[in-house]
Amino acid sequence: MASVAAKxxxxxxxxxxxxxxxxxxxxxxxxxSAALRAFKATGPTVHYEPGDxxxxxxDNAANVYSLTSGLLRLSKLLPDGRRQIAGFLFPGDFLGITxxxxxxxxxxxxxxxxxxxxxxVRFDEYVAAHPQLERRLYAVAAHELAAARQQLVLLGRKTxxxxxxxxLLMLSGRCSAGLGTTEVDxxxxxIDMADYLGLRIETVSREISGLKAARVIQLTGRQSFRIVDxxxxxxxxxx
Amino acid sequence: MASVAAKxxxxxxxxxxxxxxxxxxxxxxxxxSAALRAFKATGPTVHYEPGDxxxxxxDNAANVYSLTSGLLRLSKLLPDGRRQIAGFLFPGDFLGITxxxxxxxxxxxxxxxxxxxxxxVRFDEYVAAHPQLERRLYAVAAHELAAARQQLVLLGRKTxxxxxxxxLLMLSGRCSAGLGTTEVDxxxxxIDMADYLGLRIETVSREISGLKAARVIQLTGRQSFRIVDxxxxxxxxxx
DNA sequence: CGACGGATTGAAGCACCTCAACGGGAGTGG
DNA sequence: CCACTCCCGTTGAGGTGCTTCAATCCGTCG
Lengths: 239, 239
What we know:
The structure is a homodimer.
Chain A: H1 33-40, E1 45-48, E2 53-55, E3 63-77, E4 83-89, E5 94-95, E6 106-119, H2 120-129, H3 131-157, H4 160-174, E7 183-185, H5 190-197, H6 201-213, E8 217-219, E9 224-227, H7 230-238
Antiparallel strand pairs in A: 1-6, 2-6, 3-4, 3-5, 3-6, 7-9, 8-9
The structure holds a DNA duplex.
């Protein structure tokens, strides 16, 4: 998302968004102080625990959200229970890119998550009144589209090993715990990984074990890992 | 795309876009006569034959396009030759949704195709100057994103039968030859179908044969078919 | 008519799935 | 503090859906 970041106006210490860690990533980042203050005033800050549903597919799309902390998954269920996760939302990501009346996917919290919630009607007014916000929203949509299409390649043509390797690399770009360390956070369950990669949980587990045995990665707890051989992982991800 | 159509201004008979069959679908549809005339003047009309490359992945994204007739495929090649088609572009569709410097996918003509070509720089100027165009572009991006995510579900979780059934239904919505007839055009090769559905050509062929044998569809030539049992096809597509 | 490319059909293989058992850390209660 | 349980993850063995390899068909074009 860094590629769509713009320059960020300074905020006074009493501003409601002053301590927002992701303002420079989020769509709100393009608004100057007064506009942002009014914008933020249109909706509350909400919190969800793991497993909580933020929006349900087929729900009326009455609100849009900006994720400030935590992790969400976007998923769809087939009638017989098969599930596909279309993507994960990280802090700074926007939830609600649609021109339809209803959401197409369910959004659920994977980790404890905090979001800024905006009524869609007010949000649309703001977008219409602030061209730079509209532009930013388009940039975000274009970025998400590119990511979704990249995922199409993974699901349509990559092997299990390639999928898992690609996923771990993606995480290393998004979840590098502390800068300077090579340790990467693995914030979702194996089930979520499997449903994102179009695999079964056992296959994901086997592939991770395989990468570990090949000394490409190293598990540092069940929720984190370290990339030992980055070049090899890149190579495995590409096919 | 009908869902993102807006009201269309009338054009005088000598307007360069007067006879454009897809103006009401395309992004240009929101521009009024004079603006559209000036907009169209920024770039030529170009034509491609089947197999021709319109843009190559990693090419500098110097131009954007609006497809007025024909059919394009958006694809990506893995190093070893595996190919995934991320989507097809039908008349009225827009090519060039990106904020990056380079295209992420190759666009090639599947059928003889005509496009309006616009230099990106001039196009961006127009977008900045015409808020309704920007809005429309966002709507198009949101629509494409929803379609791509729907395709993720297909590739990640659907069986071969479900994939082919879903595809035929999609085509019946896009390529119904003449209104009133139930005949549907099948404008791409089996290879393209396979690379779009994440299957091999033999599997696609087998599935089509199966649907034919089950009297769900009926082949009316190698490039067209008819849906015999729509309810059954819907059911097969859903799983 | 003969050759070519796309499509179909058949037979065998394999990557991933299914089913099943086991392991280990976290939380609970005695 | 330890025993118990639960849940998630791991590992193993066997099955299957799609792929791979190969042969044939068929419409098109020289």
